[in-house]
Amino acid sequence: MPFSSGRPLAVEVCRPGEATVRLPLPAGGAVAVGGVELRVAVADQRVGWSVANPGPAPVSLDAVRLVVDLGTTTGPVRFLQHGHQSWSPCGVGVLGVDRDPSTTPGSIDLVRGIYHADPAVAGPGELRSELVTVLRVGDGHPLVVGFEGAAGHDGTFRLRPAGPAGTPELAAEAFLGGAVVGAGERRDLHGVEWEEGASAPALLDTWAARFGEAGRARVAAPYLVGWCSWYHYFTGITEAAFRDNLSRAVEWPFDVFQLDDGYQPAVGDWLRTNDDFPSDLDAIASAVAAAGRTPGIWLAPFVATLDAAPVLADPAHLARDARHDGPNLAMVNPAWGGSVYGLDTTRPETLAHLEHVARTLADAGFGYLKLDFLYAPTLPGRYADPSRTPAQRLRLGLEAIRRGAGDDTFLLGCGCPLGPAVGPVDGMRIGPDVAPSWLPAADQFIPPGYDAVVPSTRNAWRSALVRSFQHRRLWVNDPDCLMLRTTDTALTRDEARAWALAVGMSGGMALVSDDLALLGADAEALLEEVVELGRTVDDAARLGPAPRCDDVLEHAWPRRLSAAGLTLDADPDHPERLRLGRS
Q: Which residues are CB-neighbours of 299 under 8 A, at least 6 positions away?
């Protein structure tokens, strides 16, 4: 098995615009390659390594890799493909059978940049996993291989069908994203560790616990039940509708009451309300607090449209496109008027702006901030400080928000690269958006190759099960909202119940996002069941194992989630066959 059989056999260096350079790793563990020097030390089931620029001029690095040969394999090679950010594809792949979505003809550069650390197309037959993976050859024991940190750079595992020896190989990659390494500078890279055992879920739990402890993960937040406006009103939310739901929430067990996208006058202008909200944010927060709930609010802090007040005041807040002098495109969203651009989180002035926004919202009474579309600073572009890696650019922004919001404010990450966020955030979305339909809507735009990321409850199901092991290890898991309503929805009663119980079994947050006027006694009873189940699982995760996806390596769409002595079985193709009982 890779890594467990000995030291890496080769190293690779990737520099922007140049071919990858590969050399064998000498016995001493030090090698000059591609204009840099790598030092590698293997001991105690881990690899420590560093990269240095011994030359007189700065060099730009995309990635450095450690490569091992799997040798001759018997039986299928199964590989956990753990996605880069909240919405990224997440599941098991089989070498030689499955394909990386980036290799789909017509895949879009921006889409690849959003969903992967490295936006380049994967190699022929190559499978990728970000941050951590599980590998199993034939009927052998699973092997978990994971990075020990991510604040300094992203980490990617690349499983390749055949290396120079003609047999499969695994590469552990430190992705630096074109960061400039100064003359004479040495950078320590995040170590890679591995462990072999009989149970893949148990190994993942152990890795996550170590990773979280090393990254000072915030895992002490209480179990949360809440309401948000998004999945019924979307960007059409009004103050009248928000207050009407607040008045109806008296009998509901909500801790948090959150205003989602639609209140702001422009994307990037987070401290004012639009014409559909006669009251300012201070008054809205006060109304929620007076109702006995924690006020929550949504913002996408790292993106803006060109008409946002902060951008008009200081256009230099925006990162620049590396190919021209225009702002760096982060997404195209018709609901927001079209093109949306990313902020430059390496500028001190932009970090001060982010800190001010978070502090102002916290001072207004918002004790819960949902931070969305957080991938934006990791996109390729031109930034004020070119020495920063994509992971560092994200981390700088998150740390500025944490400074402004204070230690007592709950920060929920969404659309966020996972590894670099461990430490700053309290909760994390662990899958793509749910939807009032099991499968993607017929009119939903699907980027070529990326059908697994588009909003649908079935897509959310897969990632929620696969990433269940991260709960109370890296943060509080947010599988996404329950879908309780029986009108204005394409979900069947069985589909809504299957998803609700999966949320409960994950131990994560239980959020309702329906117009409360549409919900009756059946919806209240289902929420009560989910909350009771969720609290039981959450309590167990605080003291013992996290929730576990028992068949994480068995099915493209997992079916089993176990926690607190309970097991949920449900075929996502037949949610009506759901079973919940004692293990």
A: 264, 270, 357, 361, 369, 370, 371, 372
